[in-house]
Amino acid sequence: MRTIDWRNGRIVLIDQTLLPGTLKVVDVETVDGLIDAIKRLAVRGAPALGVAGALGVALAARNGDDVRREAEKLSKARPTAVNLSWGVRRVLAKLDQGTEAMVEEAVHVLEDDIRRNSDLGRRGAQWLIDRLGQRINVHTHCNAGALACVEWGTALGVVRALQERDALGHVYLDETRPLLQGARLTAWELKQMGVDHTVVVDSAGPTVLARGMADAVIVGADRIAANGDVVNKIGTYPLALAAARAGIPFLVAAPESTIDPATPDGAAVEIEVRDAAEILGDHTPDGSNALNYAFDVTPADLITAIVTDERIINGKPLG
Ligand code: MRU
């Protein structure tokens, strides 16, 4: 089943806020409906946001909206993953050619996502097997699986490809507070894949690595700056520090559309700050403040390699 799709002139997507308890597919018929789905993380993950951006512009055209205005709103629904505005721009570029050309381009972005992610998954798996051999134990963070793309996944796509090659050992995953993309979504996908896995609290990730329980860390990315800094779900940076200390590879898996040559480095990326209510609750005293950074920056020098659908980048400046 696809995470997001185009059916009969409308967008259909899995509402990820309901997983793992309920697998519900919802129809999205307006750009405002799509923006709402993006903001509340019903659809999430950088590649899926790219596809949502592309399909959203096609939807605006089908609905006879002011396409430029809707595209602008859509681009800003979430600020950090560059794929969203990339997907919007891809389809907006066909504006002069009419609605059918825009729909065609959006569907092309969608189909391409599947191919690109399975390519990068297989490339990443080969890279790991060349270095680590068989039975590779992996640590991952957040959800960079099929649910973050159309199908297959990026970091979890590498895990899938390791499984295909019978080279996968155990998978450790951080629960990924506060919205639990690891504990809810990655664990759900791993269970469906029949992969042995263990959920740990986010702050235990570095200890898992220090104890030699994982041979490599594999994560996705929301934006990769021109200098190779990687922006990904909050909690990625401590894992990279711990991987460097433990002397194990830290692999970032992302499609080329996540690379943003217009952003010089991680410091230039807008980091989404989400509602404090996601952190505060009955367990915190009234009046406490919360700072809910959704992403962090991992400096390029902590990254062993970035695998994309076209290449492996390690240590060289990005083209
Ligand atoms: O806030 P989210 O759930 O959209 O954050 C997702 C991540 O940080 C993923 O790791 C990233 O988008 C890569 S997904 C292939």
* H-E order: EEEHHHHHEHEHEHEEEHEEEEEEE
Side by side, the strands of the main sheet go: 6-5-4-7-10-15-16
State the total count of DSSP E strands. 16
The H-level CATH homologous superfamily of the largest domain, spelled out, is: Translation initiation factor eif-2b, domain 2
Distance between the termini: 35 Å
The ligands bound in this entry are:
5-S-methyl-1-O-phosphono-5-thio-D-ribulose
Q: Which stretches are low in confidence, meaning pLDDT under 50 for 5 or more residues running?
A: none
Summarize model confidence as the mean pLDDT.
97
Largest sheet: 7 strands, mixed
Write down the oligomeric state: single chain
The CATH topology of the largest domain is what?
A: Rossmann fold
Count of DSSP-assigned helices? 9
Percentage of residues assigned to helices: 25-40%
GO molecular function: isomerase activity
Active site: 222
Pathway: Amino-acid biosynthesis; L-methionine biosynthesis via salvage pathway; L-methionine from S-methyl-5-thio-alpha-D-ribose 1-phosphate: step 1/6
EC number: 5.3.1.23
